[in-house]
Write a structure and sequence with these properties.
By secondary structure, this protein is mainly alpha-helical. It is 40% helix and 9% strand. The C terminus is likely disordered.
């Protein structure tokens, strides 16, 4: 049970429960804030969840800096390139600098989310979630590593945030005092006019908004057809080899790029009737990679700056994940 007592101009929250070794105390500026926080803690305790801030402080020698925990996590775990880059940014956030494990309380997490959405950062909801979830994975790993066997692990405060925590509320909007960021989703499908415009550009027809027509490139034209007629991702298309095309069974053996931790996840895709002829002509006398846009090495992939998402077909506004396409169509 919880109780609130005035303490001068502040209000002290007291929470007592059988799961706690001793009563938990915390001071707030207003009674409403104390009541809201107390109700939330009681709800968690009723579900058997004990947040670390309600327990006694750990010994200083065991209370590592978050920086040290992240370094150990990166050293021991299988970290993706995107997570590795994200940690480099996350550790420079002001609330995280100098932070120790004991400092990651539910109250700190709420303050951190408010800071990410505040006027200094004003991050999009998706970016807020990426940072919180990345730090949450690190704390999950640390809790697993440091909890003794047959012992109930403490709750991870980063996992206790309510659904929709990253979206901007009216209060967040007032505090941010700037543009309110929202997640942007696109559901774009090619119309017949789009298809005609793209095929015309690939065939060498000069667009009205360009000084000269696109230089015809048979490999790039076929790459476009493969992606549009199969729904294949760009990296998957770049990885295709001549022996991946089975024109007897009319299927393509694809090395999928969305496996766990970047692992290749193979799948088979059918070849449409309209694509069989162009692929058969292209594969005659060739071996190795199907397209010449990548040398097949990890180093070559990084040089291509794959994470860039430029606008290529303006006003058609198709998006491709490579500067290569922008360079070709804006030349």
């Amino acid at each position: 049970m919880s109780s609130i007592q005035p303490r001068g101009s502040a209000f002290q929250l007291r929470v007592k429960h059988k799961l706690l070794p001793k009563p938990f105390f915390h001071t707030f500026d207003s009674r409403e804030e104390a009541q809201e926080y107390g109700d939330r803690l009681e709800s968690q305790l009723a579900r058997g969840i004990v947040v670390p801030e309600m327990l006694s402080e750990p010994k200083s020698k065991d209370d590592l800096l978050v920086l040290e925990i992240v370094r150990e996590y990166v050293k021991r775990g299988s970290v993706t390139d995107s997570d590795d880059a994200l940690f480099g940014v996350l550790l420079t956030d002001k609330p995280v600098i100098g932070l120790r494990r004991s400092g990651i309380t539910f109250r700190w997490v709420e303050d951190y989310v408010r800071w990410l959405k505040g006027p200094k950062k004003n991050l999009a909801p998706g970016t807020v979630r990426k940072r919180v979830e990345a730090l949450g994975r690190v704390v999950d790993w640390h809790i697993t590593q440091t909890t003794a066997p047959d012992t109930q692990p403490p709750a991870n405060p980063l996992r206790l945030l309510p659904r929709g925590y990253s979206t901007y509320s009216k209060t967040d909007a007032a505090v941010a005092d700037t543009e309110i960021k929202r997640d942007v989703s696109r559901d774009r499908r090619l119309s017949k006019a789009d298809v005609a415009s793209i095929r015309g550009a690939l065939a060498g027809v000069k667009r009205d908004d360009r000084e000269r027509p696109y230089t015809q490139d048979a490999a790039f034209h076929l790459l476009y057809l493969v992606i549009v007629d199969t729904g294949m991702r760009l990296l998957e298309a770049y990885r295709l080899r001549v022996d991946s095309i089975d024109l007897v069974r009319n299927v393509i053996n694809v090395e999928g790029s969305k496996g766990h931790r970047g692992a290749i996840k193979r799948r088979v895709m059918p070849i449409k009737q309209c694509l069989r002829g162009p692929l058969r002509e292209w594969c005659v006398g060739k071996e190795g990679l199907l397209f010449p846009f990548w040398d097949g090495t990890p180093e070559g992939k990084k040089k291509g700056d794959w994470k860039t998402v430029p606008e290529v077909f303006d006003p058609v506004r198709l998006r491709w994940r490579s500067r290569l396409f922008r360079a070709r169509f804006e030349a």
